[in-house]
Write a structure and sequence with these properties.
This protein is of the alpha+beta class. The protein has two domains: 209 residues, Gcn5-related N-acetyltransferase (GNAT) (Aminopeptidase), CATH 3.40.630.30; 187 residues, Aminopeptidase (3-Layer(aba) Sandwich), CATH 3.40.630. It is built from ten helices and 15 strands. The relative contact order is 0.17. About 4% of the residues have low confidence.
Length: 414
């Protein structure tokens, strides 16, 4: 099977006119695990590039032998924050937007062009033939041609085959270990503290708030305005202690940041439900019956606020919370109120779960409700520098930098 078959592998760009069925079949074969074990199936709703379509630049490649598609990979490129520096001169209008109250000693972001690999799949019947490696190398060639300085991937810590491929064969190094936090959407509404006021921000106000307070957060996208204005963005929400706004109501980000409350939190919500659906397969009849029973009881007696297992054994959608940030001693409590508000929005929309991803040491993590059994304590991000001819700049080699307290997870790539 070795070299002869490898020579027959052709890697080319995905053609939506003829590759849809073949790609769907590979996805199906890769997602469904061995009998008797739980596995997660992803329904891309007929759009194989849905998870990268909203990125500034993207590409999908397929590998085929003869006329059979046996593998695929997706990649996208964007400009993100990789560090920060002190700026003592205002060089352009963008720098002015980042600097708050004309304080020229404030840190400003250092940006780099980074590429992201996701959705690498190889048909189980064609593994150990070098197909995955060939797909990665060809995708990296496209990254370099488009000026990306770094490439990174996210994978489960216990996905040993994936970790080995990228770290042993492709030259990636383990970089960050964020946590994926998943909370079910119950049949009852979650109470939100009446001591907290929640304000819905316009995309413009949210952009200014993010740029002025969180633009130096690692992986913050330079085109945050495009993210916030995207039709998949459900809304942007700010939580403050009730009665803490000096003007009595929201007067815009300038007024807010000039004299903020002692504690506050902010987040945005992305509608993944209209992009893809998930389904847990392989569950026993006992588990299915138990889950259904909890939902029936919760729906019949919502005033008891009993936790119920969502209907994850059939296709379900999710809302993704991103841009989580806040300041002050009660910021985690403000975040908890925001998460309750998002839960109720997700319930109205028919979602099964609410998901977010945060840095392992994120202080706001304490305020994010989640079920441990559904969550992933340590997702693994691996990174690679694509070339040595780049300037080290003020950050140096980003792959060797220590992790910060926070990280910005782009919803377009979740």
């Amino acid at each position: 099977m070795g070299e002869e078959r490898v020579d027959m592998i052709v890697v080319r760009e995905f053609d939506p006119r003829k590759d849809g069925v073949g790609v769907e079949e590979v996805e199906r074969r890769c997602e469904v695990g061995p009998g008797g074990k739980l596995s997660l199936f992803t329904d891309l709703l007929g759009d194989p590039i849905c998870r990268v379509r909203n990125s500034p630049a993207f590409l999908m490649l397929v590998a085929e032998i003869g006329e059979e598609i046996v593998g695929m990979i997706r990649g996208c490129i964007k400009t993100v924050t990789c560090g920060k520096k002190l700026s003592r001169t205002v060089k352009n209008n963008y720098s002015y937007n980042v600097i708050n109250n004309n304080d020229l000693s404030k840190p400003v972001p250092v940006y780099t062009k980074v590429a992201y690999i996701l959705g690498l799949r190889v048909s189980p019947s064609h593994r150990r033939m070098g197909i995955g490696l060939k797909l990665v190398h060809q995708m990296e060639d496209w990254f370099r041609q488009n000026g990306a300085e770094y490439s990174y991937i996210a994978t489960e810590n216990d996905n040993h085959a994936s970790v080995k491929l990228f770290t042993d064969k492709c030259g990636y190094s383990k970089f960050r270990t964020p946590s994926i936090l998943v909370n079910p959407v119950f049949a009852h509404r979650v109470p939100v503290s009446n001591r907290v006021t929640i304000i819905k921000l316009t995309p413009h106000d949210a952009e200014l708030l993010y740029r002025r307070r969180f633009a130096t957060t690692e992986f913050f996208p330079r085109d945050i305005d495009s993210v916030l204005k995207n039709k998949l963005n459900v809304g942007n929400f700010l939580a403050v202690p009730r009665g803490s706004l000096k003007s009595g109501s929201w007067a815009g980000p300038d007024s807010f940041l000039s004299d903020p409350p002692e504690s506050w939190a902010v987040l945005s919500v992305w509608n993944c439900k209209d992009v893809f659906r998930l389904e847990v397969r392989g569950a026993s009849r006992v588990k299915r019956t138990f889950a259904k029973t909890t939902r029936v009881v919760d729906k019949a007696l919502p005033f008891l606020r009993l936790p119920s297992v969502p209907a994850v054994f059939r296709p379900f959608g999710l809302y993704f919370m991103y841009g989580l940030g806040g300041e002050g001693p009660r910021a985690a409590k403000m975040m908890k109120a925001l998460c309750g508000h998002v839960h109720n929005l997700a319930k109205e929309s028919g979602c099964g779960v609410v998901v977010t991803e945060v840095a392992n040491r994120e202080p706001l993590k304490l305020g994010i409700p989640h079920w441990k059994m559904l969550s992933c304590a340590e997702d693994l991000w691996c990174i690679k520098r694509l070339g040595e001819d780049y300037s080290d700049g003020s950050v140096g080699d980003w792959t060797k930098s220590p992790p910060g307290l926070s990280i910005f997870v782009d919803p377009r790539e979740f």
